[in-house]
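Key result, reporting period 2: structure in, sequence out.
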């Protein structure tokens, strides 16, 4: 089983910088686990690491799609899996850095959803019992192993069935990792995190976020996959003359803070993360390096 280091956490917490430092120390290559950094031409609003900031470390899955192209969780799973094999074959360490939780969880567990995106409405309007009954009708063997109260696994099983056309019970345990992963989670207290998010948005504005959003809008971005991201979608009413600029900036900051909260909740409940606060504890960096070194040691 290939070893993978993963760095997860909310936006603006320092994941990219840590990824570069670990790649330098452990001869690694970075795979972006961010669903927006895949788009070409959108650099400011996606907080991409620029070539001059990469310090010679190879970065993958950045700038691999045009703004009108989809990049599903399945696409990420396939592309990241291939890259892990290639990087490992080169004798280097794959380091996945990002905050798109569903992408990372799907990669780690190897779910087989096909090429389409995850349906958000597969159990909409159903109670837990009704959703479980739907699973029981579709796959009695799976329903026998999943309690009705476990809504997440019921939805996961129904999604797999819908996307693959195969019984979930025939596809193995969806909680068995496909990689030997050491998952580093970066976090900090809410006040510090929110202040950093607000400051990052202000910095993006000075770097040309509005012009980048206008460029996307002028090309029909409102209806494109790239136009759904935070930092871009908030501008559409302003460009249409339906909102003022101050309201747009406030909305970007609010949406970014809410997203960070959702990211933390997801990672805390969906992945086996080792948490560190680099912003409050300077000694945490040494602890991370020590933990990664121990993880990468060959088995005796």
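The corresponding designed sequence is given below.
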């Amino acid at each position: 089983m290939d070893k993978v280091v993963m760095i997860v956490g909310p936006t603006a917490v320092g994941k990219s910088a840590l990824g570069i430092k670990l790649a330098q120390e452990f001869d690694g290559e970075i795979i972006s686990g961010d669903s927006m950094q895949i788009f070409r031409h959108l650099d400011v609003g996606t907080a991409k690491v620029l070539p001059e900031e990469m310090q010679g470390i190879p970065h993958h899955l950045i700038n691999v799609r045009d703004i009108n192209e989809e990049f599903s969780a399945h696409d990420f799973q396939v592309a990241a899996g291939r890259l892990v094999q290639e990087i490992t074959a080169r004798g280097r360490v794959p380091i996945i850095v990002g905050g798109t939780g569903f992408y990372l969880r799907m990669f780690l567990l190897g779910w087989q959803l096909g090429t389409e995106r995850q349906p958000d409405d597969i159990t909409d309007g159903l109670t837990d019992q009704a959703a479980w009954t739907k699973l029981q009708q579709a796959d009695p063997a799976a329903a026998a192993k999943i309690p009705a109260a476990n809504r997440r696994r019921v939805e996961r099983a129904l999604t797999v069935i819908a996307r693959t056309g195969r019984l979930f019970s025939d596809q193995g345990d969806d909680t068995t990792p496909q990689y030997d992963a050491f998952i580093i989670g970066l976090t900090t207290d809410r006040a510090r995190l929110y202040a950093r998010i607000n400051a990052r948005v202000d910095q993006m504005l000075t770097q040309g976020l509005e012009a980048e959003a206008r460029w996307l809008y002028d090309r029909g971005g409102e209806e494109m996959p790239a136009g759904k991201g935070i930092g871009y979608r908030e501008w559409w009413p302003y460009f249409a003359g339906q909102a003022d600029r101050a309201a747009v900036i406030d909305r970007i900051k609010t949406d970014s803070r809410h997203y960070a909260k959702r990211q933390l909740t997801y990672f805390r409940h969906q992945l086996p993360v080792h948490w560190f606060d680099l912003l409050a504890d300077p000694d945490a960096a040494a602890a991370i390096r020590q933990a990664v070194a121990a993880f990468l040691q060959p088995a005796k």
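The chain has two domains: 3-111+179-200+264-296, 113-173. The domain at 113-173 is CATH 1.10.20.140 (Histone, subunit A). This case is discussed further under Risks and Mitigation.
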